[in-house]
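Notebook entry, structure prediction.
Reason for the run: the old model in the group folder had no record of what sequence produced it. Starting over properly, with the input documented here first.
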Amino acid sequence: MENSEIIYGKNSVMEALIAGNREINKILISKNIHTDNKINKIKELAQNKGIVFQFVAKEKFQPYAEFNHQGIIAQISPIKYADLDEFLQEREHTNSSLVILDGVEDSHNLGAIIRTCVCAGVDGIIIPSRRNVQVNSIVEKTSAGAINHIPIIKVNSLINAVETLKNNNWWIIATDASAKDNYYDVKYDDMNFAIIMGAEHAGVSKSLLKASDFVVKIPMQNSFNSLNVSNALSAIIFETLRQKLINKIK
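New structure, fully documented this time:
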């Protein structure tokens, strides 16, 4: 990992947390180091800011052997995440679109999703601060620069984000393999909508499925039901674009 992606050492990490001017994805603390006042302060600051910290085996620090890390490293995002409330206030939303990611863990998938969203004219991507891959150098590279052309909105609670969207005239469309309706049966061209995509192994959580206005599936020709999440999103999101373009022609 490149030096530009991390902050290391107790004092540096603590100062970054206090200053609050860097987007910290995660803090790694070695299980082998002695807990002292600085470590306790870092844990307290991270908890107050909703930043994930993990105690990990010393082997996790092997890639950082050249740094005087003192058993603590903060992983930094290469972008500044957007705020959902500001996103909703900054523009007049008419037939706008969002993609919500629930539990996507692979950096390459996130990068590919960002690239697809930019190509299809999606207005933003929402990711949770926990249990989802955050933006890192792999995501940035896989997106082929697309990451610089779309807001990535990080939220503490996807359920709360969905409720905020619904209260602001957005319709929520979740994807689920057992849904009755196909993704192309929804009329996308006359509403603000957010499409929820889940990870391959778990899918969209039950609470988000329940909160959604529509639940749709991609029909499969056989029992091999394992589309990559970025491929699945491509099928759905370009159908929404197709409908918008047809509506413009009319």
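Summary: The longest strand covers residues 24-30.
The old model has been moved to the deprecated folder.
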